[in-house]
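Continuing from the previous page of notes. For each protein in this section, the sequence appears first, followed by its structure tokens. Read the first protein now.
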Amino acid sequence: MNLKNSKTTNVNTSYSGEFERTPVPKAKLKSWTSFLGIYAGEHAAGTEFLIGPLFLTAGVSAFDLIVGLLLGNFLAVLSWRFLTAEIAIKYRLTLYYQLEKICGKKLVIVYNLANGILFCFLAGSMITVSATAVGIPFNMPMPKLTDTMPNGLTWIGIVIFIGIVISIIAARGYNTVTKAANWMAPLIVTGFILCGIVALKQLNVKSFTDFYNIWGEGTEPFPGQIKYTFWHVVIWSWFANAAMHIGMSDLSVFRFAKKSSAGWTTAAGMYIGHFMAWISAALLYAVYLKSPEALAILNQGEAPPVAPGPLAYNAIGVFGILVVVLAGWTTANPTIYRAGLAFQAVFPKLTTSKVTFLAGLVATIAGIFPAFAMKLLSFVALYGFILAPIGAIIVFEHFFAKKYRIIENYAEIKGLNFNKSVLYAWALSFGIFYFLSVQFNIFLSFLTLPAWLFCGVLYLIFSYYFHK
């Protein structure tokens, strides 16, 4: 939208109901229960059916998995509560408009485009998850861990159908996304619980010792995977959603909250989804690994496929298919909604609903290629590492601008399209720490926090010297 035409901006904002370029008014604020539903739904969702099994392929031990997830998810909740939610209720702006005030329109367009595309890839992996369930009645071959390309026309057709349905829901706006999450979340959580119970019976678990011994002291990672230790689990689970919390993407969600305490509702997503659901999904995969088919694949030196649909169907039948389909939806819906908000800043003449539907189409195309889902652990680490440091710009300006005499919303005040302090800070932090990761083979998630802190400090330094 054109900043020069404030009347048009206000009309469009009121009509869409999404308040893309104005603070959310008091009358439109939502209670904490709205956020409980959307976070429980989004994080007890499609990604969980993949991440749980992928931990097993990384050879993680029982202690490292259980205790590491408890700690890492707690750190994630604290990040949402005391960073994202606090800043969101002060300004009540989307991430994209708040960045525009700081960075300038031209620079934020580049960020929005990258952000939107990465969100689309993540949503696409969730469409892939749903497709593994819908494909069961059609006897569709399931993608393997090493697959990058679609394996047939049936797969492509199913992905396109699911993607269009999800895109239509997301394009209807925040209220529809919230209602969909609130309706689906109880079914999905029930499904995860049932899957876990059935898998425990299939594994003949009768005591905590039996449960612990499923992972035991860990194993060697599967072919093509890296070994996960305690700190891999802690740091990865903390920063699995780095773009959302320390990256400030969920400013777009919590701007609707009445109080910053709504940030605590993310615990529902972390401990129902990123703890219980991950472990339940890992149990499903542990059952499959004992099957003759999986053993034969392992004997050939390959990793057995991680296909959520068949895993859930093996445990709880047709209800498992339904749960996997809905689980993919509840992650893809808000993710496409976020991508739509990002693209809306790139294509201001289009309505939010149109660009959100466009984002859904991009996600659908990504979903056709199973590589995004099968390499989800690595993709999520990279995605957080790229986007999180930009959030440091907002956080450090919020907490330290007055103390270090930094001009807040510099681009807006000076009428700039390009704030070089932001670009220099992000480029240096990303370049230096990504180089360290590649050069010394350091687990990328280990470098997310250092890159975030470094970016924030550099922004203050550059702003102090460049801003007049």
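Done with the first. The second protein uses the same format. Note its length before scrolling.
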Amino acid sequence: MLIEKSPQTAVQQQKRPLSIWLRIVTNLTFWVLIAIIAGIVLGSYAPAAAVKMEIIGKTFIDIIKLFIAPIIFLTIVLGISGIGDLKKVGKIGLKSLLYFEVVSTFSLAIGILMAVLLKPGNIDKSKLQVGDASKYTSGAAKEFNWMEFFMSNLTLQVLLVAIIVGIILNYSKHREKAVTGLGRLSKIVFLGLKYVMYLAPLGAFGGMAYTVGKFGLHTLVPLAKLMGTVYLTMGIFIFLVLGGIMKYYKMSIWKFIKYIKEELLLVLGTSSSESALPSIMQKLEKMGCSKSVVGLVIPTGYSFNLDGTSIYLSMSVIFLAQLYGVELSAWEMLSIIGILMITSKGAAGVTGSGFIVLASTLTALHKIPVEGLAFLLGVDKFMSEARALTNIIGNGVATIVIAKSEKEFNPVAEGEEQEWSNEDAEIKEGKFAGIN
């Protein structure tokens, strides 16, 4: 028996390294990572050429955006039609908004607390680079308008239309026929997305090359303390706060992050959480969250559950106060949280909107010079990655929490025709949730 087994073992040992390398070079994550590194190198050594790569990153994001509206629409309509119980749909929506408000408020508070403790603004501002913040400060006094926010937010518009269509379909006698047709269309859309995602390395390369080439890594040095504080705070929020929430529901934040690693690398390269919105919805469904929960929570979360943005905004206000030597009382800090709870909702999906929100907040306080935003312009692009990564992880956790609490979390059964990764297999076996 030993003689028979030895050749097989030798063959297996020879094949194993080849299979590992084959898995690496055929893994999209590997190529996205290589693209990010290539973008940093090009941006550092040939900034002029790197800036021209912006068109590649922008084009990829524009293509991905074409899929966002149909995917949200189809997912929500099919999800609501599948539930059948409209009271449950309303319950999921209300529970989601309540969860968003509680967690977003907590993220605002943790941003202020960490800034007060670590004091990133206690530096010499005369050594900082000054940008032109006039286009943001000029509109600072303008009040937040919910109608304008809705009219400029395609995600929310599609969400509303999809909910209405889903409700109408529930009462229609042609419901089954419509659901069958929409189901086929959904498969076609997701198949198209699958092929577009093969371009992800190009998008990550273009986005990272432009950022490094345009702003330069040297701009990070003067504001290294702020950068470090922001990334540390985001890390604490993800692993302690979100990790604690996941643990309560017997889930692992580490395994969830590993499961969505491709989406996280894409967000890191493009500095946009929108670039991963369609694929994160697909991943969460594969993981076991019901279509209705994914369809309702993710699109709403992209507008109302911006944990990373909330941390950055509250921390930036305290940073500027420290930079100008402005003392803020406990009441004024609570006021900052209150103001940002409303204005931060307008920071979704529009480039530069975060600065407009900051300008509005500083104007409302009447204590910190709005012109201080000019000091943040040079380094803001490098912190957008942290914001986007925290936002997408936060929305993923929110979806899992709502699905688990509503008993709408069911790992997909074996035999379903889907391409599963190792992590997907772990989920189906129950390992993802830490179940032995």
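What the second structure shows: The chain has one domain: 2-429. Residues 2-429 form a domain with the Proton glutamate symport protein fold (CATH 1.10.3860.10). We return to this in next week's lecture.
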